[in-house]
Design a protein that fits this description.
InterPro entries: AB_hydrolase_1 (IPR000073), AB_hydrolase_fold (IPR029058), AB_hydrolase_sf (IPR050266), PcaD/CatD (IPR026968). This protein is an alpha/beta fold. It has one domain: 3-Layer(aba) Sandwich (Rossmann fold). The protein has 11 helices and 7 strands. The protein has a 7-stranded mixed β-sheet with strand order 1-3-2-4-5-6-7, with helices on both faces. Bound molecules: the ligand O=C(O)CC1=CCC(=O)O1. The site of the ligand O=C(O)CC1=CCC(=O)O1 has 10 residues, from helix 5.
Length: 260
Protein backbone atom coordinates (compact mmCIF):
# COMPACT_ATOMS: atom_id res chain seq x y z
CA UNK A 1 0.00 0.00 0.00
CA UNK A 2 1.42 3.40 -0.92
CA UNK A 3 1.25 6.39 1.42
CA UNK A 4 -0.10 9.80 0.49
CA UNK A 5 2.87 12.16 0.34
CA UNK A 6 2.79 15.87 1.13
CA UNK A 7 4.43 18.01 -1.52
CA UNK A 8 4.79 21.67 -2.41
CA UNK A 9 5.42 23.28 -5.79
CA UNK A 10 7.83 26.21 -6.15
CA UNK A 11 8.68 28.28 -9.20
CA UNK A 12 5.54 27.64 -11.24
CA UNK A 13 5.06 31.39 -11.77
CA UNK A 14 8.76 32.02 -12.44
CA UNK A 15 9.78 29.55 -15.12
CA UNK A 16 8.32 28.45 -18.49
CA UNK A 17 5.55 25.87 -18.25
CA UNK A 18 7.84 23.34 -19.90
CA UNK A 19 10.79 23.95 -17.53
CA UNK A 20 12.13 20.67 -16.15
CA UNK A 21 10.58 19.33 -12.96
CA UNK A 22 13.04 18.99 -10.08
CA UNK A 23 11.89 16.66 -7.30
CA UNK A 24 13.49 17.12 -3.85
CA UNK A 25 13.63 14.31 -1.27
CA UNK A 26 14.32 15.05 2.42
CA UNK A 27 16.50 13.26 4.97
CA UNK A 28 15.26 11.31 7.99
CA UNK A 29 13.91 13.55 10.75
CA UNK A 30 13.56 16.66 8.59
CA UNK A 31 11.03 18.13 6.20
CA UNK A 32 11.15 20.32 3.10
CA UNK A 33 12.66 23.06 5.30
CA UNK A 34 16.03 21.38 4.80
CA UNK A 35 15.95 22.77 1.22
CA UNK A 36 14.81 26.29 2.18
CA UNK A 37 18.07 28.20 1.48
CA UNK A 38 18.26 26.66 -2.02
CA UNK A 39 14.65 27.20 -3.06
CA UNK A 40 14.96 30.77 -4.46
CA UNK A 41 17.78 29.72 -6.80
CA UNK A 42 16.18 26.42 -7.80
CA UNK A 43 12.73 27.93 -8.33
CA UNK A 44 14.19 30.34 -10.89
CA UNK A 45 15.29 27.39 -13.03
CA UNK A 46 12.93 24.48 -12.41
CA UNK A 47 9.39 23.63 -11.53
CA UNK A 48 10.43 22.44 -8.07
CA UNK A 49 8.43 19.78 -6.26
CA UNK A 50 9.53 19.40 -2.63
CA UNK A 51 8.23 16.04 -1.42
CA UNK A 52 8.09 14.83 2.18
CA UNK A 53 8.85 11.18 2.79
CA UNK A 54 6.30 8.81 4.26
CA UNK A 55 6.02 9.27 8.04
CA UNK A 56 7.40 12.82 7.89
CA UNK A 57 5.83 16.29 8.08
CA UNK A 58 2.49 16.40 6.27
CA UNK A 59 2.82 12.97 4.68
CA UNK A 60 0.82 9.99 5.78
CA UNK A 61 2.19 8.11 8.80
CA UNK A 62 1.45 4.45 8.18
CA UNK A 63 2.51 2.04 10.93
CA UNK A 64 6.05 0.68 10.40
CA UNK A 65 8.36 -0.91 9.70
CA UNK A 66 8.84 0.59 6.24
CA UNK A 67 11.11 -0.65 3.46
CA UNK A 68 13.02 1.38 0.90
CA UNK A 69 10.87 -0.27 -1.80
CA UNK A 70 7.77 1.19 -0.14
CA UNK A 71 9.32 4.66 0.17
CA UNK A 72 10.29 4.56 -3.51
CA UNK A 73 6.88 3.28 -4.60
CA UNK A 74 5.27 6.22 -2.76
CA UNK A 75 7.25 8.61 -4.96
CA UNK A 76 6.32 6.74 -8.15
CA UNK A 77 2.63 6.84 -7.16
CA UNK A 78 2.94 10.61 -6.64
CA UNK A 79 4.66 11.03 -10.03
CA UNK A 80 1.80 9.10 -11.64
CA UNK A 81 -0.86 11.11 -9.83
CA UNK A 82 0.76 14.38 -10.95
CA UNK A 83 1.35 13.06 -14.49
CA UNK A 84 5.10 13.61 -14.22
CA UNK A 85 6.96 11.72 -16.93
CA UNK A 86 10.68 12.21 -16.52
CA UNK A 87 12.07 14.31 -13.67
CA UNK A 88 15.35 15.59 -12.32
CA UNK A 89 15.95 14.63 -8.74
CA UNK A 90 17.94 15.82 -5.74
CA UNK A 91 17.87 13.97 -2.45
CA UNK A 92 19.85 14.19 0.77
CA UNK A 93 20.58 11.12 2.88
CA UNK A 94 17.32 9.10 3.02
CA UNK A 95 16.15 11.29 0.12
CA UNK A 96 19.27 10.23 -1.81
CA UNK A 97 18.58 6.56 -1.04
CA UNK A 98 15.10 7.00 -2.50
CA UNK A 99 16.68 8.70 -5.53
CA UNK A 100 18.97 5.71 -6.13
CA UNK A 101 15.99 3.35 -5.75
CA UNK A 102 13.94 5.38 -8.26
CA UNK A 103 16.77 5.61 -10.78
CA UNK A 104 17.41 1.85 -10.57
CA UNK A 105 13.77 0.68 -10.55
CA UNK A 106 12.21 3.28 -12.86
CA UNK A 107 15.14 4.51 -14.97
CA UNK A 108 12.79 6.12 -17.49
CA UNK A 109 11.53 8.50 -14.75
CA UNK A 110 14.88 10.01 -13.62
CA UNK A 111 17.11 11.63 -16.23
CA UNK A 112 19.58 13.44 -13.95
CA UNK A 113 20.11 13.35 -10.22
CA UNK A 114 22.17 14.83 -7.43
CA UNK A 115 22.77 12.54 -4.45
CA UNK A 116 23.82 14.51 -1.39
CA UNK A 117 25.33 13.14 1.84
CA UNK A 118 23.95 9.68 1.30
CA UNK A 119 24.83 6.00 1.16
CA UNK A 120 23.80 2.86 -0.69
CA UNK A 121 24.38 0.71 2.38
CA UNK A 122 24.52 1.95 5.96
CA UNK A 123 25.27 -0.83 8.46
CA UNK A 124 25.16 -1.91 11.20
CA UNK A 125 21.41 -2.54 11.02
CA UNK A 126 21.35 -3.03 14.80
CA UNK A 127 22.12 0.68 15.32
CA UNK A 128 19.07 1.66 13.26
CA UNK A 129 16.85 -0.88 15.02
CA UNK A 130 18.02 0.42 18.41
CA UNK A 131 17.40 4.01 17.31
CA UNK A 132 13.88 3.04 16.19
CA UNK A 133 13.25 1.45 19.62
CA UNK A 134 14.53 4.56 21.42
CA UNK A 135 12.33 6.89 19.38
CA UNK A 136 9.22 4.74 19.81
CA UNK A 137 9.85 4.67 23.58
CA UNK A 138 11.03 8.24 24.22
CA UNK A 139 10.22 10.32 21.13
CA UNK A 140 12.32 12.11 18.52
CA UNK A 141 13.21 14.85 21.03
CA UNK A 142 15.27 12.28 22.97
CA UNK A 143 17.81 11.99 20.12
CA UNK A 144 17.94 15.69 19.20
CA UNK A 145 21.33 16.56 20.71
CA UNK A 146 23.05 13.54 19.20
CA UNK A 147 21.43 14.24 15.82
CA UNK A 148 22.63 17.86 15.84
CA UNK A 149 26.17 16.54 16.34
CA UNK A 150 25.88 14.50 13.15
CA UNK A 151 24.08 17.19 11.18
CA UNK A 152 26.45 20.13 11.69
CA UNK A 153 30.15 20.70 12.32
CA UNK A 154 31.19 21.89 15.76
CA UNK A 155 32.07 25.33 14.36
CA UNK A 156 28.65 25.78 12.74
CA UNK A 157 26.89 24.71 15.95
CA UNK A 158 28.85 27.36 17.86
CA UNK A 159 28.35 30.11 15.24
CA UNK A 160 24.75 29.45 14.23
CA UNK A 161 22.76 28.25 17.26
CA UNK A 162 19.49 29.57 15.86
CA UNK A 163 19.86 27.72 12.57
CA UNK A 164 20.77 24.56 14.47
CA UNK A 165 17.71 25.00 16.70
CA UNK A 166 15.49 25.40 13.62
CA UNK A 167 16.83 22.13 12.20
CA UNK A 168 16.36 20.33 15.52
CA UNK A 169 12.78 21.64 15.60
CA UNK A 170 12.16 19.74 12.35
CA UNK A 171 13.32 16.55 14.08
CA UNK A 172 11.19 17.18 17.16
CA UNK A 173 8.17 17.77 14.93
CA UNK A 174 8.67 14.48 13.07
CA UNK A 175 6.14 11.82 14.11
CA UNK A 176 7.83 9.20 16.30
CA UNK A 177 6.38 6.27 14.35
CA UNK A 178 7.36 7.79 10.99
CA UNK A 179 10.92 8.38 12.13
CA UNK A 180 11.28 4.93 13.70
CA UNK A 181 9.80 3.18 10.67
CA UNK A 182 12.21 5.03 8.34
CA UNK A 183 15.12 3.90 10.58
CA UNK A 184 13.91 0.36 9.89
CA UNK A 185 13.88 1.09 6.15
CA UNK A 186 17.54 2.17 6.37
CA UNK A 187 18.35 -0.91 8.49
CA UNK A 188 17.06 -3.14 5.68
CA UNK A 189 18.49 -1.11 2.81
CA UNK A 190 21.20 -2.44 0.51
CA UNK A 191 21.22 -0.68 -2.85
CA UNK A 192 24.73 -1.72 -3.83
CA UNK A 193 23.55 -4.31 -6.35
CA UNK A 194 21.16 -1.79 -7.96
CA UNK A 195 23.72 0.89 -8.68
CA UNK A 196 25.22 -0.52 -11.92
CA UNK A 197 21.70 -0.41 -13.49
CA UNK A 198 21.36 3.35 -13.02
CA UNK A 199 21.37 5.28 -16.27
CA UNK A 200 20.64 8.77 -14.88
CA UNK A 201 23.44 11.30 -15.18
CA UNK A 202 24.52 11.30 -11.52
CA UNK A 203 26.46 13.72 -9.32
CA UNK A 204 27.32 12.52 -5.83
CA UNK A 205 28.06 15.22 -3.25
CA UNK A 206 29.61 14.51 0.14
CA UNK A 207 30.25 16.72 3.14
CA UNK A 208 33.94 16.49 4.00
CA UNK A 209 33.08 16.34 7.72
CA UNK A 210 29.93 14.21 7.56
CA UNK A 211 30.09 11.55 10.30
CA UNK A 212 26.80 9.90 9.24
CA UNK A 213 27.52 9.26 5.55
CA UNK A 214 31.23 10.03 5.17
CA UNK A 215 32.88 10.69 1.79
CA UNK A 216 33.88 6.99 1.54
CA UNK A 217 30.16 6.18 1.07
CA UNK A 218 29.92 8.70 -1.76
CA UNK A 219 33.06 7.20 -3.34
CA UNK A 220 31.42 3.75 -3.20
CA UNK A 221 28.36 5.06 -5.06
CA UNK A 222 30.52 6.79 -7.68
CA UNK A 223 32.45 3.55 -8.15
CA UNK A 224 29.27 1.64 -9.06
CA UNK A 225 26.97 4.11 -10.89
CA UNK A 226 28.10 4.30 -14.53
CA UNK A 227 29.53 7.73 -15.32
CA UNK A 228 28.82 9.21 -11.86
CA UNK A 229 30.99 12.08 -10.60
CA UNK A 230 32.02 13.04 -7.07
CA UNK A 231 32.23 16.43 -5.35
CA UNK A 232 33.33 16.82 -1.75
CA UNK A 233 32.23 20.02 -0.05
CA UNK A 234 34.54 21.36 2.69
CA UNK A 235 33.28 22.49 6.09
CA UNK A 236 30.04 20.53 5.80
CA UNK A 237 28.66 17.76 7.98
CA UNK A 238 25.45 15.84 7.17
CA UNK A 239 22.83 18.53 6.59
CA UNK A 240 24.98 20.24 3.99
CA UNK A 241 22.07 22.10 2.38
CA UNK A 242 21.76 24.07 5.62
CA UNK A 243 25.46 24.36 6.51
CA UNK A 244 26.82 25.13 3.01
CA UNK A 245 23.78 26.17 0.95
CA UNK A 246 25.69 28.27 -1.59
CA UNK A 247 28.17 25.50 -2.41
CA UNK A 248 25.51 22.80 -2.60
CA UNK A 249 23.16 25.01 -4.62
CA UNK A 250 25.89 25.85 -7.13
CA UNK A 251 26.77 22.17 -7.60
CA UNK A 252 23.15 21.09 -7.94
CA UNK A 253 22.38 23.81 -10.49
CA UNK A 254 25.56 23.15 -12.49
CA UNK A 255 24.69 19.47 -12.69
CA UNK A 256 20.92 19.53 -13.08
CA UNK A 257 20.71 22.52 -15.42
CA UNK A 258 17.31 24.11 -15.64
CA UNK A 259 15.53 26.80 -17.62
CA UNK A 260 17.78 29.82 -17.26
O1 LIG B 1 21.34 9.85 11.52
C1 LIG B 1 21.14 10.91 10.90
O2 LIG B 1 20.41 11.81 11.34
C2 LIG B 1 21.80 11.05 9.58
C3 LIG B 1 21.08 10.32 8.55
C4 LIG B 1 21.34 9.10 8.06
C5 LIG B 1 20.35 8.77 7.05
C6 LIG B 1 19.54 10.02 7.02
O3 LIG B 1 18.57 10.29 6.30
O4 LIG B 1 20.00 10.89 7.94
Amino acid sequence: MTARLACTWYGLDDVPVDAPVLVLGNSIGTNQGMWAPLIPELAGRFRVLAVETRGHAGSEVLPGPYSLDELGQDFLALFDELHLGTVRYAGLSLGGMIGMWLAAHAPERVERMALICTSAYLPPATNWIERAETVRAKGTGSIADVAAGRWFTEGFRAREPERVAAAVAMLEATPDEGYAACCEAIAGMDLRGDLPRITADTLVIAGADDPATPPSHAEAIVGSVPGARLQIVPDAAHLATLEQPEAIGALVVAHLGGAR
